[in-house]
TrEMBL record:
GO MF entry, a single one: L-phosphoserine phosphatase activity
Domain of life: Eukaryota
Organism: Sesamum alatum
Catalysed reactions listed for this entry: O-phospho-L-serine + H2O = L-serine + phosphate
Catalytic-site annotation from UniProt: D100, D102
GO CC, one annotated term: chloroplast
Any GO BP annotation: L-serine biosynthetic process
NCBIfam families in the cross-refs: HAD-SF-IB, serB
One Pfam family cited in the UniProt record for this chain: Hydrolase
Protein's name according to its UniProt entry: phosphoserine phosphatase
Family the UniProt entry places it in: Belongs to the HAD-like hydrolase superfamily. SerB family.
Length: 306
């Protein structure tokens, strides 16, 4: 082992941080390095050259030591990571559970990934952050993002073939547990049905239990826009969708799980009785602070149903 490698290992051991192997975001090849473990939306955008590490071991050690695992640091900032008895009672007795998809069921933001595939990733990601924080109307952010790259039908199909959905750890087990407990599961998303249908198939969720947006294409496959009649295409749309689900199905109790401001909106009279914020991918402080229960691992929800 060379001197630079020894310094690197000593620095990482002294920092006592959890490590994980990640791949180059730009090439998606097998050359990997060790960096501090971070949520997927952070680690996938960190590019550190192994050559730079060996030339600057002290600088890298300082960077590594400054990182803290998301869950550990968050628990000191929020007082809702342990559910109250009332919250547990609602969760355990709910008739149905509605999941957000992007950064909840999946580790990616679907529209961001599609935009990246089409060459407009960075610009679209900025708009996504605004939309999820609630700083701009959702419909405005959705139209603006799509206008930056105007995906064609052929691009969407190619994207789905080359970039299959990446499920969040434990979501498949949680959905199975909910169904075993006779709870109905819905996907309520500001994303697009074309990209969510395959996810529902993997999880065994009926397509009629999807409430999401629809991309529109012309006869030659050219992009025309999105269906504005879908409730999830505008601000407050998820809340409207959840209200529809509850009214049509006649549920006595319903829970919403997600990471964004549009998910939090669904907790209202006639809508969701409980909002569980999932911070395992994206932790939005303004949303997490208002959640009935903040979780970082779906195992917590699974275990609470036993």
């Amino acid at each position: 082992m060379c001197y630079g490698q020894i310094l690197l290992m000593e620095g990482l051991m002294s920092a006592r941080i959890r490590l994980s192997s990640i791949h180059s975001f730009s090439s998606r090849q097998q050359n990997s390095i060790l960096v501090p473990a971070l949520p997927p939306k952070v680690t996938k955008r960190i590019l550190i050259s192994p050559t730079w590490i060996m030339r600057n071991p002290k600088s890298f050690n300082s960077i590594a030591a400054s990182f803290q695992p998301l869950e550990t640091s968050a628990e000191t900032r929020f007082d809702n990571t342990l559910p109250s008895k009332e919250v547990l009672d609602v969760w355990r007795n709910a008739d149905a559970v509605c999941f957000d998809v992007d950064s909840t069921v999946c580790v990616d933001e679907g529209i961001d990934e599609l935009a990246e595939f089409c060459g407009a990733g960075e610009a679209v990601a900025e708009w996504t952050a605004r939309a999820m924080s609630g700083s701009v109307p959702f419909e405005q952010a959705l139209a603006a993002r799509l206008s930056l790259f105007n995906p064609s039908l052929s691009q969407v199909k190619e994207f789905l073939e080359k970039r299959p959905p990446r499920l969040s750890p434990g979501i498949d087990a949680l959905v199975k547990k909910l169904k075993d407990n006779n709870k109905n599961v819905f996907l309520v998303s500001g994303g697009f049905r074309q990209m969510i249908n395959p996810i529902a198939s993997i999880l065994g969720i009926p397509l009629e239990n999807i409430y999401a947006n629809q991309l529109l294409f012309g006869s030659s496959g050219e992009f025309l826009g999105f269906d504005t009649k879908e409730p999830t295409s505008r601000s407050g749309g998820k809340a409207t969708a959840v209200e529809q689900i509850r009214k049509v199905k006649g549920y006595n109790s319903l829970v919403m799980i997600g990471d964004g401001a549009t998910d939090l909106e669904a907790r209202k009279p006639g809508g969701a009785d409980l909002f569980i914020c999932y911070g395992g991918v994206q932790l939005r402080a303004s949303v997490a602070a208002k959640a009935d229960w903040l979780v970082f691992n779906f195992k917590d929800l699974i275990n609470s149903l036993d």
